[in-house]
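User: I've been trying to design a sequence by hand for this structure and keep getting stuck. Would you show me what you'd pick, starting by listing the structure so we're on the same page?

Assistant: Good idea, let's start from the same input. This is the structure you sent:
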């Protein structure tokens, strides 16, 4: 019973924070709600005994990405200012998409063909359980995609810096 209560409590906090990300008009409050949402998801991963994804979620996303978002918000001189209201067509499209997603989840859950047992047993020394093998695969087989993602993040950061420069800031007296 306590594990169920903890799951429902963490799920409620995570969903409330996710709604806070979308519904907050203040950009800084939205970024902080995103941080709480990511921490809630990491806690749910810990409940599943998936410590590596939880650690990576906290370290990479909650730590670095949210800090980058806050840096960009401050760099663009939004200062936590109010967002523009959504257009009615955008809001309608979002509601239709959410309704379709909810209908899909309900249809999958109504089938009720779930098993608590994994379909294929995972060997003890496999990639999923051994952190050393995971790191070796990441920095050998998947080195190019990791480098490309880092390069794309660098380009995005440079683009934000260029876009945030004010007119006439280039000329120094």
């Amino acid at each position: 019973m306590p594990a169920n209560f903890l799951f429902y409590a963490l799920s409620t906090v995570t969903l409330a924070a996710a709604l806070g990300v979308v519904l907050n008009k203040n950009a800084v409050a939205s970024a902080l709600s995103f941080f709480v949402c990511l921490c809630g998801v990491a806690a749910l991963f810990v409940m599943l005994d998936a410590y590596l994804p939880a650690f990576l979620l906290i370290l990479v996303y909650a730590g670095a990405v949210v800090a980058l978002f806050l840096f960009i918000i401050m760099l663009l001189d939004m200062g936590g200012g109010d967002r523009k209201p959504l257009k009615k067509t955008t809001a309608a499209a979002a509601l239709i998409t959410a309704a379709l997603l909810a209908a899909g989840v309900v249809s999958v859950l109504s089938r009720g063909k779930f098993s608590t047992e994994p379909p294929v047993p995972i060997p003890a020394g496999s990639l999923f359980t051994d952190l050393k093998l995971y790191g070796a695969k990441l920095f050998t087989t998947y080195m190019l995609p990791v480098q490309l993602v880092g390069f794309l993040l660098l380009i995005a950061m440079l683009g934000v810096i260029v876009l945030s420069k004010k007119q006439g800031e280039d000329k120094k007296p």
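That's my pick for every position. To get oriented when you compare it with your attempt: The helical segments are 2-23, 27-47, 51-75, 88-111, 131-138, 143-164. The mean pLDDT is 77.
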